[in-house]
Amino acid sequence: MNIGITVYPTYGGSGIVGSELGRELAERGHNVHFISSSLPTRLTELNERVHFHEVEMMNYPLFEHQPYDLALATKMATVARSEKLDLLHVHYAIPHSISAILARESIKEKRFVPVITTLHGTDITLVGADRSYLPITKYGLQQSNGVTAVSRFLKQATIETFDFDEIEVIPNFICPAHYQRIDESPLKTEFSPNGENLLTHVSNFRPVKRPVDCIEILAAVRNEVSNVKLLMVGDGPERAASEYRARQLNVAEFVHFVGKRENIADYLGISDVFLLPSELESFGLAALEAQACEVPVVATRIGGIPEVVIENETGFLSEVGNVQKMSENVVTLLSDEKMRRDFGRKARESAISRYSTKSIIPHYIEFYKKILNTASEPPA
Ligand code: GMT
User: Fold this and answer.
1) pTM for the full model?
2) Which one, out of 104, 174, 189, 356, has a CA that is 20 to 30 A from the CA of 286?
């Protein structure tokens, strides 16, 4: 198949999932054309099957805001015709599905290119549900030829908010060879020279991720267990508040803010416990990546997290903001090495058996085939 993929290139889990899906499809012999404003960060290699088409935008003084959606639709239509695309697969509904629908409509006399929209989370639960975007997001869902969601939670949220239920749940995935426990590495020597326990948090530090809670958890844990450090991987608006809280609680010297990193697996592989105290999470890709590295997860019981983290088997879950309970969970795991290893082993087993590329990528391919067989024109 010739597949067009659109993602947000620099920010968030949807870009990671779309990029890795493209790479996996190419490895299985498909031609993948990324259409985006810049090269997606996780797309480190272009080759004869992985192509990139940059969306060009004219800068005109009249435009207070650049009409990116239109430039994207134009590029999608151009690429669909020149590369004979079989379908357009967009990740994150806003504005990608609307741009793709515009592209499909603008060229349908010459070539019919079905649109598949994958919902990732805030495109439904936060941004899409806002009155300013709700009607157009609903239209985007109805007009897509196929819609997938990354968790059962997100499918249900879409039904409740948009009264739209033709959704296939296809969860996020990991490559088990890439995400593994690492016993010795230069990073391990750097951060744990004396065998310190490492707690890790990975996110884009938006308020919804509550990174400040991670600092508070570390401070509470250190009252019980002295040799503990926290690795904060990523960057974003809440970083300054997290750094400030670390200084306030006198734990700054035990927290490493390492910034945005490409090699997330290297940090997860050396971790002892992964922290995800989010307020909202439709799936929690970082928790899955941690589990694949045999790292137990301490997280909140919200959204799709309970689908990914098996409570009391691969991690512990708490109510949002219950720092006390999350700290106790971390202390329990750090004080009982056997339990921590058992949780870690089960976490990897569950990640591989339920979310490996081997089982999830064929699910996408089957879905593509189904849509190609049934969609010969836009939905009525
Ligand atoms: O929160 C983010 O990191 C961004 C956002 C996105 O769409 O880029 O992430 C969502 O998609 C991820 C990949 O499917 C999920 O793992 C995240 O849970 C989800 N974030 C939220 O629902 C807040």
Assistant:
1) 0.94
2) 189
